[in-house]
Design brief:
The chain has 338 residues and is α/β, with parallel strands linked by helices. It has 13 helices and eleven strands. α2 links the parallel β1 and β2.
Length: 338
C-alpha cells in the first residue's frame, strides 16, 4: 500500500515539474518589448536577426528619445524591457531615476570606459556627431545663396539670406535637438546657448519632432541646411541624395546606448539582446548601415566617415551633466520660446 502511495506521489511530483517547466518556458518565451530610438527599419532588421538566432519573439516600438524619457520617467510599469539606442544622457536619466537594471555584458570587455556607464547600467553601441548638412542643389539654385559659401559654423546659419530656409530639431522631443542644446550650454554657458538656439529657431521653417526628419527634409530639398546627426545625413547620401556634411567647431556628440529596464517582464531575453547588440559581427554590420562611429577599437570605420573632422568635436562633453541639467535647460528653452 505504501509503495502504491509513493508511486502516486512521485507521479504527481513529476507532473508538477513538467508543468512548471512547460509554463516556465512559455513565460520566458513572451515577446521582448523594445523601445527603438533610431530608425525603425534598422531596429527591425536587428531584432529579426536576433529572433532567428534565439527564437525570441519581440515587439518593437519606434519612439523619439524625448517621448521615451517622458513615458519611462513618469509612467508606472510600462512592460518595456529594453531601450535600444538614443543618447547616453537619456540612459543616464533612467539610471538616476532607478528605472534601469544593472547588467555588465561579457561583450563590453573591449569597449573603452568613456563609452559605457562606470556603474554598469548602460553601454554604448555607437557614437555619432552633430553636423551641419547643406543641400547643394537647393543652395546653388537659390539666387540669394548661390554666391555665398556653405555654412561651416552654427553662426553661419544665422545669415539673413537663410531665414526660413533651415531647420533644427526640437530639444524637447528630439535627442538630436537636446544634444545640440546641452553641448552649446557646456561650451558657452546656458544663457548664450539658449540665445543661439532661439536665433536658430527663428531662422527655421519649423523645429522638427526628431532629428532624422530634418535630414530627410534636407535630402528632399525642402530646406537648404539643417543641423542633425552626421549618420542621419549620410544615410540619405548613401541612398543617392546630394548632401554636403560638415562637423562644426565644438560640435556636440552622442553615445548611442542600450539599457535594460526594471519595468520589463523578460530580463533574461533582454540580457541576451544586449550581448547580441555588442557582439563584434552585429557591431560591424550596424556601423556599416547606420554610418556611425564604432565604440569598439577593433571595428573598422565606414569609409564614408573618413573625411569627418573629429578634432572639431567638443572634447569634454559630459553626458552625466547633460542628464542632470535636462529639466532646467528644457525649462529655460520653453521660457525663452514664449
Amino acid at each position: 500500500m505504501r509503495r502504491k502511495e509513493l508511486l502516486i506521489l512521485l507521479a504527481v511530483a513529476l507532473v508538477g515539474v513538467a508543468g512548471f517547466l512547460f509554463f516556465g518556458e512559455k513565460m520566458n518565451n513572451q515577446p521582448l518589448k523594445v523601445y527603438v530610438i533610431f530608425q525603425e527599419d534598422e531596429g527591425r532588421i536587428l531584432l529579426e536577426t536576433f529572433k532567428k538566432k534565439t527564437d525570441q519573439p519581440y515587439e518593437i516600438i519606434r519612439i523619439s528619445s524625448g517621448e521615451a524619457s517622458y513615458h519611462l520617467l513618469t509612467l508606472g510599469k510600462t512592460g518595456i524591457d529594453v531601450v535600444l539606442g538614443g543618447p547616453a544622457d537619456m540612459h543616464e536619466q533612467l539610471k538616476n531615476n532607478k528605472k534601469s537594471l544593472h547588467y555588465v555584458s561579457p561583450s563590453t570587455g573591449n569597449v573603452p570606459s568613456k563609452y559605457k556607464d562606470p556603474d554598469g547600467y548602460w553601454t554604448g553601441m555607437y557614437m555619432g556627431a552633430l553636423a551641419i548638412g547643406t543641400n547643394p542643389n537647393v543652395w546653388e539654385n537659390d539666387p540669394e545663396l548661390a554666391t555665398l559659401p556653405m555654412p561651416e559654423r552654427y553662426e553661419d546659419l544665422l545669415r539673413p539670406e537663410l531665414e526660413g530656409k533651415i531647420q533644427i530639431p526640437d530639444p524637447e522631443t528630439s535627442g538630436t535637438g537636446y544634444t545640440l542644446l546641452a553641448s552649446l550650454a557646456q561650451e558657452r554657458g546656458e544663457q548664450e546657448a539658449i540665445k543661439l538656439m532661439q536665433e536658430l529657431k527663428k531662422q527655421s521653417t519649423t523645429t522638427t519632432f526628431a532629428g532624422i526628419t530634418s535630414a530627410q527634409r534636407l535630402a528632399e530639398g525642402e530646406v537648404a541646411a539643417v543641423v542633425s546627426f552626421l549618420g542621419d545625413q549620410l544615410r540619405f547620401t548613401n541612398s543617392g541624395y546630394d548632401i554636403h556634411s560638415i562637423i562644426p567647431p565644438q560640435a556636440g556628440w552622442e553615445i548611442g546606448a542600450i539599457s535594460i529596464l526594471k519595468s520589463g517582464n523578460n530580463s533574461s531575453a533582454a540580457k541576451e539582446l544586449v550581448d547580441f547588440m555588442l557582439s563584434r559581427d552585429i557591431q560591424t554590420d550596424y556601423m556599416n548601415t547606420a554610418f556611425s562611429f564604432p565604440v569598439k577599437p577593433d571595428i573598422p570605420v565606414n569609409p564614408m566617415l573618413d573625411s569627418a573632422k573629429m578634432e572639431h568635436l567638443l572634447p569634454n562633453y559630459r553626458f552625466d551633466q547633460a542628464a542632470k541639467n535636462r529639466e532646467n535647460l528644457i525649462k529655460a528653452w520653453k521660457a525663452a520660446r514664449e
